[in-house]
Amino acid sequence: MSNLPNGITHTAHATGNGVGEHVSFHMFFDSWIVEQNHHLQELVSAADSASEVSVLIPLVEQVVQHYEHYYKTKLMWAKEDILSMFRPSWTSSLEKAYMWVGGWRPTMAFHLLYSKCGLQFKDTGGDLSHGQMERVDKLHKTTLWKEKMITEKLAKLQETTADSSMVELTHSLTELIRYGGDQVVRRQGLVVDAALAPKEKGLVVILQMADELRLNTLKELILILSPIQGVYFLIAAAELHLRMHDWGKKRDDASNNHHQAATTTAN
After folding, report:
1. Lowest pLDDT segment from 109-113, 175-179, 220-224
2. What is the DSSP code (8-state) at residue 103?
3. What mean pLDDT do residues 88-105 have?
4. From the CB of residue 69, how many other CB atoms can be counted at a distance below 10 Å?
5. Could you give the 3-state DSSP secondary structure of residue 108?
6. Which of 120, 183, 196, 200 is the most exposed place for a label (fewest CB within 10 A)?
7. 3-class DSSP state for residue 11?
8. CA dist list (Å): 146 to 24, 64, 72, 107, 120
9. Torsion angle, CA of 165/168/171/174, rounded to 10 degrees?
10. Using CA atoms, how far apart are residues 48 and 177, in angstroms rounded to an integer?
11. In whole angstroms, how far apart are CA 4 and each of 8, 89, 154, 221?
């Protein structure tokens, strides 16, 4: 792991002993994204200086390990609070609008690669070979199929919120609330939690499948690319993520300021 600037601690400290009592995934993400920006600087420096393969390979491996650490930690927190992963407070409204099963759509990696091929690989003499394109195309089709399968699994799980057991439960509890008073209202929470628990466990499984596909797609693409191509691809991925995050936060801040100003004026 590279030496980070003063004041930046590696995110591993937050998860070394499991899910920390005083650490949230939001805090972990904020730390992780700082490290991602630092890795981006290292990648750009390596590309600009035309570093040797002996330098590029460990750097690429380091960045991939950073992604692995992210998904390992995310899974730990998902098991604690799965619903937060589908309404993440650490992402902006802009990012949420383009999310697929709690994160980025795996097939986006191929569109990113194709865009990068047209913009930068040609400038560096690093075009994808015919053999590489065939491997990328095969991986793309496999990823698309797996993506569709996960989408269908999520759809089936979502449909269970309107199955006969849930309809019967919601009707029964509504009747109890109407005639049972406050004591019944307090007890209903236990019944609802028991009914929703298996559905939340199902969400954990599906999120894990989606995150594994995201990570495996990234790793498989890196294996197909040459070291310098891998560097440029990881640069593009980090730039896209970091800038979308920044743009989204700024838009959210502007929107919040506008609403606050409108509320103040109304009062």
Report:
1. 175-179
2. B
3. 96
4. 18
5. helix
6. 183
7. helix
8. 31, 21, 20, 10, 29
9. -60
10. 67
11. 6, 26, 39, 27
Confidence category of residue 2, pLDDT binned at 50, 70, 90:
very low
Specify which residues 100 forms β-bridges with: 103
User: Is residue 157 over pLDDT 90?
Assistant: yes
pLDDT band at 7 (very low <50, low <70, confident <90, very high): very low
Of how many residues is the chain composed? Answer: 267
Q: Residue holding tokens 């236990």?
A: 190
Once rounded to an integer, what is the mean pLDDT over residues 124-146? 89
Burial of 125 (0-12, 13-18, 19+ CB in 10 A): exposed
> Which of 55-69, 120-134, 204-218 is predicted least confidently?
120-134
Q: How far apart are alpha carbons 69 and 32 in whole angstroms?
A: 9
Q: How far is CA 261 from the centre of its chain?
A: 33
Burial of 87 (0-12, 13-18, 19+ CB in 10 A): exposed
Q: Which tokens hold the place of 184?
A: 């019944």
Give 74's contacts (C-beta < 8 A, 6+ positions apart).
Answer: 25, 85, 211
DSSP secondary structure string for all residues of 186-205: HHHHHHHHHHHHHHHHHHHH
- Sign, CA dihedral 142-110-136-51, equals negative
Tokens of 223: 């294996």
